[in-house]
Each structure stands twice: as C-alpha cells, then as structure tokens.
Design brief:
734 residues, alpha+beta, Beta-Lactamase, TIM Barrel, six-stranded antiparallel β-sheet, flat, Biofilm_reg_signaling, CHASE4, transmembrane helix, membrane, Bifunctional diguanylate cyclase/phosphodiesterase
Length: 734
C-alpha cells in the first residue's frame, strides 16, 4: 500500500513533465526539419546559380581560345586571301582538338559554304558538316550582322596594329543525341599586314561536346559531385540542375549533380542527441537496465576474446602451448588404465628450415597456415590439435587403441606430404611424429610431452616421414645426446679438436690442394664422427665458436704452404652471421696467411634464398681473394642462378654419384652434365670419394679434371704433410 502511495505522486509529477518534454521535443524536431529543408533548398539554388555562371565562364574561355586562332593576320592570309588546308589542319583542326578538346571544326567561306572540315583533329570530308549545319546557320545571321556594322579593317594612323572587337556567337545544340557547345567566329586581322579581300570574311565553326571529360573538369573546378548530363525529362527533383536551352529557349538537355545539403548534414549530427534525449525522457529506467545489460554483454564478449587470444596462436588460429597444457592436464587426469589411455603425438615438419632459408619467412608462415588446416581436417576425431611453437604441433587423442593412434599418425604424414601450391611456388615438406601412449595414471603434462618429443627425435634421427612410439631406451638415447652436447661445449677451445687434410689431384695425379677436415678425439669416447657432432653444433648454436676455432687453426697450420690451395668448410649458420667475413679477415691477418691460397667450401642450401647477410659475406670474401667452392653439388637445390649470382669458382661432385658409377648410365650421364656445365661457366670440377681405379677411369672419361678420395690419398695430420709437401711439390714440378 505504501509503495502504491509513493508511486502515484511520482507518476503525477513525471507524467506531465514527460508529456511536456515530449511535445517540446516533437515541436523542435518539426521546426528543425522545416529549417533544414529551407537550408538545403537555399544551398541548392546557390549551387545552380554558380553552375550557370560557371558554364558561361567556360563558354567565354572557349570563345577566347577560338578567337586567338582566327583573329590574326596569319588566319586572314591562309583562310581569306588564299585557302591553305594544311594551315587549317595545324592551326584550327588539330590545335583546337589536342589542346582544348574541340571535337569538330569547320571553315565557312564568304558565301557561308563549308570549305574545310576537321573531326577529332584530323581532316574530314565536307559532308561531316551536315549534322552541324542547322546549329551553325542559326549563328551566322548574328555574326554577319556584326560584321556589317564594324568599321572597315585598316591600319590606324601612327599605329602598327588595328583594333577590331571579336565577332562571335555561340549556342548549345543537341546533335546526334549529344549536347555540344557550338561557336561561330569571324576571321579578322590583328596588325593589318593582311586584310580581307572581300566585305565578307570566312567564319570558323568550332564544336566541343559536353561529355564525360568536360564534365569531370567542370566538376573538379566547381567541386560538384556526380555531375552528369541528362535529358530534361530524366531530371529528378532532388538533384541540382541547370537546363541547357537552344536559341529558341527550348530545353534540350540538363546538367544534374548531387547538391550539398548542409541542413541534412546538420540533421544527421543532431539526430543522435535528439533521439538520446527522447529515449532518456521516455524510459530512463529501462535505458539504465538496457545499458547495464549491454555493458555486461560487452564484458563477457571481451573476456571471451581475451581468453581466445591467450589460448590460441595468432598465425594458425590453433590452440597454443597454454591451452595445450590445460587440455593435456584434463585428459591425463581421466587416464585410469588401458581402457582410458591417451595418445600424445608430437608432429614436426621436416625441411621447414630450408623453406624459411630459401623462400623467406613469409613463405614459412604461409606453409604453417596450410599445415594447420590440413591437421584440422586429418585429425577430426582428436581431442585437441595445437601448435607448440615454431614448426611443431601436438595432437591429443583419447583412445584405448594404440593402433588407432598409429593410423592417425600415418594419416597426418600423408596429409602433410601433399604438395602445397602457394604464391611462393610449389612447396614440398614432410613430417616426423613422436607418439607417447599413456596408459598409467599420474603422468604430468610436461613429462608426457617430453616422452613424445623423445620419440619425435628418434623419428628424425631415422630419416623422418615416420611415426616412432616412445620407449624407455629412447629416453636414454636423448640423455646421451644432451650429455654429448655438454661435452662438445666443453671441448671447444681445447686440443680435443684437430685438423687433418685430404689431398686432391689432377688427371696426371699432380697435387693441386687439400681439404681441411675437422676431427674430434674425445678423451673417453674416442673419435667422434663429424656427421654426429657438426649437426649437434648447428642445432645447439655452438657452430660459430667451433667454426672460429677451425679457421684459426687452419690458417696458422697452412700459412707457409705454397703452390697448393686449402679448402675450409663453412656452415650456412656462419654465412648468415653478421660480420662473418670481417671475422675471417681478422683471423687470417693474425695468422699472416694469404687469402688467395684458400677456398671457402659451402653447401648448396647455404646459398639459396634471399638472406642479405649471406650475400654480403660471400661478396666480401670474394673481394678479399678467397675462392668459393660448392660442396656436395647435385644433392640439394642446384640452380644455374646460384652459380652465377655468387660467382662460384669450383663445384665438387658428391661422392654418392661417384659411388654409383658402373651401376648404370644414369650417374655417368649426370657427371658428364655437371662437367659440361662447369666447363661452360669456366669453373673447376672436383670429384669426391674416388675409391677405385674403375671410378677414376669413368671420371676421366666423363671429362673430370680433379679428384679426391682414398684411392689418391687419405686425410693426414699437418705434421705429415709438412714433411712430405716439399717432396710432393718437387715430384709435381718434375
């Protein structure tokens, strides 16, 4: 009861106020609409007046243009005293068309008959005048009347010119459905050097179409929008308009445009405040509730967007590492035994780094997007497909069937291996997969991912394109690799690393040079193959320090060698390092070596792509005097462009081709092709891995001129070479 009692005074008070406010607002709206319409109409009328005056200005300007060409002694001499059609071509037809847009020009003789016609700047048949005859003849009486009323042209006493006002007439005419501005101008002298022969002078008729080009120039000049020419019947009442009439005052066309409407613009600006005021007066409470609901909705949506951004990768739109760990934790908590097992698949793209290095990071991003979409489609039954980072993805599959997880893994490999066609060309990659099948409860997410990552490493170690299931012995192998990395880091800078040098010879088995080869003599493990520790150094970032040690040792050990070249292998990582060439120069200067006695050996992959640091380093090394040799030629992405772009001096045929000699004509043909290519580019060819006399014979027959392999000489320490080198040089000289 008390609430009803308090509600009645509020309604008595606010009811009339709301009604009064609504009525006042309605009156204000009506008044605003009335004033807005008046403002718009006044603005349109001002624009119409402006356009009318503007058109008159344009016509006057065109009249002056024509008068300039026909009111001078040259025009009298070539159009009146004698008629020169070539002069008319240049000064009337062509000039008025090219410089001022007149499409038609005609010259009428003293008898008002056409003696010259020009259409679009080119001389035309006199019959082209027929469509314009009616328009021109309507102007002739006015021109002839002015001609008769003027004083006879002649020089003024004591002056060198005469003063004769222009005699012109013009009109708007509709010819062939196209409106034209048509002018008639009497030919008159200026200095009086040539005077008309007769009482009647020739008349020049010029016509300019009111077409798109003319309208665009006019609209730009007077800031008009949507200026077009229409028939008078097609004019809308809302358009700004100017009727174009003939000399009889009959409208033949109309210029229309979208007028400025300042009143309407004001209404648009005032509409929101007026509507807001009305809404506040009519339903303030409802508005507050609605606004509160909108704010809550925005907050919920904003929270959802923020959460999505926090848990998804911006490039591939897949769940990211944070989301993966959350979902992985949930799935692992559901594992209670073999019936509720979880398969964790780590997917890593093979050769992704080559795509980034050769085609650029944009191509790499495009490839990742394509791979993410393929994973979505191939893993429809998966619990989660996430991007862990870089080119590594993780797939979670809740299943009690390990075979189903292996089938999914092989399906992923097939999907990833399909060629990607993009704006960067056709890209082919594959993937390696590590599978951890978890059947026991209590496994932590980080441990589950580590197991899958260990299995992934085994897949990559085995050549890729396969699924490897985690087993405890794999963990031991990974721990061994990590321990080896620690020992590699400790070994750099010590005497565990040493250099050996393998010779290469020419066809007469004369010594030509050596290739410097790095060896790691581990104190407990013994000799460790470069195929093991070099990739490990590249993956761990130790290759720069190790490469610096190699350069320093090679230059110091071989600086006194004469008459032979020494090849030093350089990693692609070193070539991409800023200032690598400067580092080489400092080490060589400290050792006192001559760069012209050395070759820098690089792989084909190192020279591919658009990496500017690689280009800068190669150019600097070439300027210092180093030769550039391309190692393992034919096994990567060989291209003629690479050979020419980097001015490669030597290519080394990979030992795999040499080993295949005699097994078929394929290898022989390939080696012959490489030799012919090198010969055409003036490059030296070295065949690597020559092990037998049969291989030697095949290579000599194929045209190869330098050779390296155990048949000719095994790698030797520097002490052995220093003792034998003088004897070898003497034997070669003999």
């Amino acid at each position: 009861m008390n609430a009803d009692y308090e509600a009645k005074p509020r309604s008595w008070l606010f009811g009339p106020m709301a009604g009064l406010a609504a009525g006042a607002l309605g009156l204000l709206v009506l008044l605003s609409v009335f004033l807005i319409q008046r403002f718009d109409r006044a603005a349109t009328e001002r624009e119409e007046h402006m356009v009318e005056n503007g058109l008159a200005v344009v016509i006057a300007e065109l009249n002056r243009v024509v008068a300039t060409q026909v009111e001078w002694d040259g025009a009298v001499a070539n159009l009146d005293n004698r008629f020169d059609p070539n002069w008319a071509d240049f000064n009337i037809g062509n000039y008025l068309h090219v410089f001022h847009g007149f499409s038609h020009a005609y010259v009428l003789g003293p008898d008002d008959r056409v003696v010259y016609a020009s259409t679009h700047g080119e001389r035309a048949a006199l019959t082209d005048y027929i469509p314009f005859r009616a328009a021109a003849e309507s102007l002739l009486p006015e021109v002839r009347a002015q001609e008769r009323a003027r004083p006879k042209p002649g020089k003024r006493p004591g002056k060198n010119n005469i003063v004769i006002p222009s005699i012109q007439a013009n009109r708007i005419a509709l010819i062939g459905g196209q409106p034209y501005m048509v002018s008639a101008t009497l030919v008159q002298p200026d200095f009086g050097e040539h005077l008309p022969k007769q009482a009647r002078a020739p008349i020049v008729i010029a016509a300019k179409p009111i077409d798109h080009a003319m309208l665009k120039a006019f609209a730009d000049r007077y800031l008009l929008e949507d200026l077009v020419v229409r028939s008078p019947e097609a004019v809308a009442s809302a358009d700004g308009q100017l009727l174009l009439a003939n000399r009889a005052g009959i409208p033949i066309a109309a210029l229309t445009w979208t007028p400025r409407r300042p009143g309407t613009m004001l209404l648009v600006q005032l509409a929101a405040p007026l509507f807001l005021l009305l809404a506040l007066l009519a339903a303030l409470a409802w508005r507050v509730i609605q606004r509160g609901s909108a704010i809550a909705t925005d907050l919920i949506a904003s929270e959802a967007r923020a959460k999505h951004a926090a848990f998804h990768d911006s490039l591939t739109r897949l769940p990211n590492r944070a989301y993966l760990f959350e979902r992985l934790g949930q799935s692992l908590r559901r594992v209670e035994g073999p019936e509720t097992a979880l398969a964790v698949l780590c997917v890593d793209l093979d050769r992704f780094k080559e795509v980034n290095d050769t085609l650029g990071h944009n191509a790499g991003d495009a490839l990742l997007e394509a791979m993410a979409e393929r994973l979505r489609q191939a893993c429809s039954e998966a619990t989660c497909v996430a991007r862990l980072g870089g080119d590594e993805f993780v797939v979670l599959l809740e299943t009690s069937d390990e075979a189903a997880a292996l089938v999914l893994g092989r399906r992923i490999i097939r999907a990833v291996s399909e060629r990607v066609v993009s704006e960067y060309g056709k890209i082919e990659v594959a993937c390696s997969i590590g599978l951890a099948f978890i059947e026991e409860p209590g496994v932590e997410p980080s441990e589950a991912l580590r197991w899958a990552d260990v299995a992934l490493y085994r897949s990559k170690e085995s050549g890729g394109r396969r699924v490897s299931r985690f087993s405890p012995d794999m963990d031991q192998a990974l721990r061994h690799r990590l321990q080896l990395e620690v020992e590699l880091r400790e070994a750099i800078g010590t005497d565990q690393f040493g250099m050996v040098y393998q010779p290469h010879f020419d066809r007469r088995r004369n010594l030509k040079g050596y290739e410097a080869l790095l060896r790691w003599n581990h104190p407990t493990r013994g000799a460790i193959s470069p195929s093991v520790f070099v990739p490990l150094a590249e993956d761990s970032g130790l290759i720069l320090a190790l490469g610096e040690q190699v350069l320093r040792q090679v230059f110091e050990e071989t600086r006194d060698w004469r008459g032979v070249t020494v090849a030093v292998n350089v990693s692609a990582v070193q070539l991409r390092a800023r200032g690598f060439a400067a580092q080489v120069m400092r080490i060589m200067a400290a050792a006192g070596a001559n760069p012209r006695g050395y070759e820098i050996e690089v792989t084909e992959t190192a020279l591919l792509g658009d990496d500017q640091e690689t280009v800068n380093n190669i150019d600097a090394l070439k300027r210092m005097g180093f030769a550039i040799a391309l190692d393992d030629f034919g096994t990567g992405f060989s291209s003629l462009n690479v050979l020419q772009r980097f001015s490669v001096d030597k290519i080394k045929i990979d030992c795999s081709f040499v080993a295949a000699l005699g097994a078929g004509r394929g290898s022989e043909a390939l080696i012959e092709a490489i030799v012919n290519l090198a010969r055409g580019l003036d490059m030296v060819v070295v065949a690597e891995g020559v092990e037998t006399e049969a291989q030697w014979d095949h290579l000599v027959k194929a045209g190869c001129r330098q050779f390296q392999g155990h048949l000719l000489g095994r790698p030797q320490p520097v002490s052995t070479i220093n003792r034998a080198l003088p004897d070898q040089r003497r034997a070669s000289a003999a």
